[in-house]
Amino acid sequence: MKKSFLYLVLAVMVLSAMFMLGGRSIHANQNDNVTYTLPYLTSATDKNIYCVISNRTQDNASVHFTINANSALSLNSQLQNFNTLSNYAVVYAHQTRMLSFEGLTINLDGMAMGSVSVAVAANQSYGGRISLVQMGILGGSGPFNSWSCMDLPMACFQGTTNPKRNLTGYLCSDPYSPQTPIQHFTY
């Protein structure tokens, strides 16, 4: 059995266990979001990044990716706010999906959902943000709480070798509400 597959299965099992043991209903406020900042990505095809995202809430989350910097020093403010992913990039309630950065292409569960080619050339480094944005309340009668990083956990791995390396140095930020002060988690 390939070690990379084993690591992926292990990550999915851990994220699923976190969901099952949580035991609470989470509903987001309209347009609530959790943001993961990845300061180092590359379009080199031998340094792919694989991120497993688990949605522990009762709401669907659309996935957005914006490029915040590139190594060519040529990123203007219009490109910094450009969502590079399709509107069909969604992590549904109680679902785990894999977002991968492979060369210039961004895939969701192996399907091409976007490209960074608008601001990044081949073999160039860049940084960006993954935002998981609430799509709409799907029902339920619980209190409406802000999403937190614990409600939408993500684990990332890098490389094309087996085993993959854990990616470190990325940051999760969740929204502020009177009940939940803003939190930042570094992985």
Structural class: mainly beta
Quaternary structure of the protein:
single chain
Head-to-tail CA distance between termini: 28 Å
Mean pLDDT level? 77
- Strand percentage lies at 35-45%
The global form is: globular
The total count of strands amounts to 12
User: Order of strands side by side in the largest beta sheet?
Assistant: 4-3-8-1-11-12
User: Poorly predicted ranges (pLDDT <50, ≥5 residues)?
Assistant: 9-30, 138-144
Q: What is the alpha-carbon Rg in Å?
A: 16 Å
- Tally of individual helices: 2
Helices and strands, in N-to-C order?
A: HEEEHEEEEEEEEE
Task: Bin the helical content.
Answer: 10-25%
- Could you describe the largest sheet, including whether it forms a barrel? 6 strands, antiparallel
Walkthrough of the structure:
Helix content is 13%, strand content 36%. The strands form two sheets. A six-stranded antiparallel sheet has the order 4-3-8-1-11-12, with no helix packed on it. The protein has one domain (3-161, 168-186). The two termini are 28 Å apart. The model is unreliable at 9-30 and 138-144 (pLDDT under 50). With 187 residues, it is mostly beta strands. The protein contains two helices and twelve strands; from the N terminus they run αβββαβββββββββ.
